[in-house]
């Protein structure tokens, strides 16, 4: 996750570099249930409105939670499927809060209504994130349910009105990019605290529908718009958080933006970005799915490291006998192609390994989602060597 607003603030008020602080344990995104009332086109969990047998019981979840606490996990993001479809969701959330976790709820928002809003508020979530993948019909088409936009927006307003910290999450593809300006306006008009921009990742239905991925020019346009908007909001004193996910090249693109707009701050921002260190799947981000399988992050459901029913998370996570985990934890990562040659590898850490793996079979190949040009990353010429687009397999010429 790249925190745009945090690095943007370094332009107006630079802070000392200081030593790098590593979090005590990974942030755990926990898909507590796979069932969902929606069937979105891009869904990595391939959720649907049916039961998925074998999910962790309440008691099992409490046992895992105790282990996560002892392992010094600081943050739990309760996700799904649609987490509000779990009858015990409020008990789980309250117990997690009582144990001292920072607890986020990741919801599609359509089920936040007058009947449950007080129970949601009682949980005292540190953050509620609701997905909006466009305005009105765009969102409804993407999420494949008529009326989903109005229902999600109503859910957002209910949370906001009770003082919960609320964010909008947007996954951009070619189908919904045109609504990005409208969504940014909505964030301002509705008094929403955070905007999370997610690049499409190649997992689940998002892998099947990767042809809808935004082309690189569109991604660059979106990033410029996000940076300009975030800067403008900060100038106006609007305290809004802007973050991005699933493409750590955003940090490098941001550095280029700073070099153009505020060259006098570029060296400072670059030092801060190097300290951030880019992609942290398998290191500072972890995933537990509805069946208790542990993955390096939410996009790696096709690669399981172990199951919490057989072995505690605290033992699975540090175990580097799995080659993927060993590679993800290696620093710097042994990435190939233009990622390996990139001058800014230390900033983005080789980006999103699952996209490389889905397109080439090799998790250490260059990430085809990198939208910077060769001359922007100090790669002299990839010329004939590689042909990379999100739509073709990587061809290596002799
Ligand atoms: C799987 S959903 C679960 C929570 C809830 N049902 C929702 O839709 O917000 C969590 C987040 O992952 C995003 N997501 C799902 N598949 C994705 C993909 N292939 N690439 C990027 N983001 C994805 C969703 O848009 C949503 O914001
Ligand atoms: S992205 Fe969320 S709302 Fe959409 S199908 Fe997946 S779990 Fe459900």
TrEMBL record:
GO term, biological process aspect, one: heme biosynthetic process
UniProt domain Radical SAM core: residue ranges: 22-236
Keywords: 4Fe-4S, Iron, Iron-sulfur, Lyase, Metal-binding, S-adenosyl-L-methionine
Protein's UniProt keywords contain Ribonucleoprotein: no
Protein name, as recorded: Pre-heme d1 synthase
Cofactor(s) the protein requires to work: [4Fe-4S] cluster
InterPro entries the record matches: 4Fe4S-binding_SPASM_dom (IPR023885), Aldolase_TIM (IPR013785), Elp3/MiaA/NifB-like_rSAM (IPR006638), Heme_synthase-like (IPR034480), HemeD1_Synth_NirJ (IPR023992), PqqE-like (IPR017200), Radical_SAM_PqqE_MftC-like (IPR050377), rSAM (IPR007197)
Role description: Involved in heme d1 biosynthesis. Radical SAM enzyme that catalyzes the removal of two propionate side chains from the intermediate 12,18-didecarboxysiroheme (DDSH) and may introduce the keto functions on rings A and B, yielding the heme d1 precursor dihydro-heme d1.
Keyword Thylakoid listed: no
Xref: Gene3D superfamilies: Aldolase class I
Any Pfam family matching the protein: Radical_SAM
Gene from which the chain derives: nirJ
């Amino acid at each position: 996750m790249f925190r745009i607003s945090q690095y943007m603030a370094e332009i107006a008020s630079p802070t000392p570099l200081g030593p790098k602080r590593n979090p005590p344990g990974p942030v755990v995104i926990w898909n507590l249930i796979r069932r969902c009332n929606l069937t979105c086109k891009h869904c990595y969990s391939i959720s649907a409105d049916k039961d998925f047998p074998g999910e962790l019981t309440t008691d099992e979840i409490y046992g895992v939670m105790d282990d996560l606490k002892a392992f010094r996990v600081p943050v739990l993001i309760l996700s799904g499927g649609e987490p509000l479809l779990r009858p015990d969701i409020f008990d789980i959330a309250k117990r997690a809060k009582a144990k001292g976790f920072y607890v986020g709820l990741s919801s599609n928002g359509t089920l936040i209504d007058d009947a449950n809003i007080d129970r949601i508020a009682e949980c005292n979530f540190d953050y509620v994130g609701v997905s909006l993948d466009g305005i009105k019909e765009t969102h409804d088409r993407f999420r494949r349910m008529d009326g989903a936009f109005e229902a999600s927006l109503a859910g957002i307003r209910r949370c906001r009105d009770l003082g919960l910290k609320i964010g909008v999450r947007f996954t951009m593809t070619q189908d919904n990019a045109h609504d990005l300006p409208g969504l940014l306006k909505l964030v301002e008009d509705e008094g929403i605290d955070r905007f999370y921009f997610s690049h499409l990742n190649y997992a689940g239905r998002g892998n099947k529908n990767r042809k809808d991925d935004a082309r690189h020019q569109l991604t660059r346009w979106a990033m410029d718009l996000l940076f300009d908007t975030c800067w403008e909001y900060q100038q106006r004193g609007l305290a809004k958080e802007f973050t991005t996910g699933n493409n750590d090249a955003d940090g490098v693109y941001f550095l280029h933006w700073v070099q153009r707009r505020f060259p006098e701050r570029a060296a400072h921002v670059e030092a801060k970005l190097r300290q951030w260190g880019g992609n942290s799947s398998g290191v500072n981000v972890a995933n537990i799915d509805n069946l208790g399988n542990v993955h390096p992050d939410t996009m790696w459901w096709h690669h399981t490291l172990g199951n919490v029913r057989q072995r505690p998370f605290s033992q699975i996570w540090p175990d580097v006998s799995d080659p993927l985990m060993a590679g993800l934890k290696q620093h710097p990562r042994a990435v190939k192609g233009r990622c390996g040659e990139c001058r800014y590898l230390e900033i983005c850490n080789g980006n999103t390994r699952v996209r490389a793996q889905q397109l080439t079979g090799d998790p250490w190949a260059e990430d085809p989602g990198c939208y910077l040009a060769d001359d922007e990353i100090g790669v002299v010429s990839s010329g004939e060597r590689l042909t990379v687009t999100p739509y073709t397999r990587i061809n290596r010429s002799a």
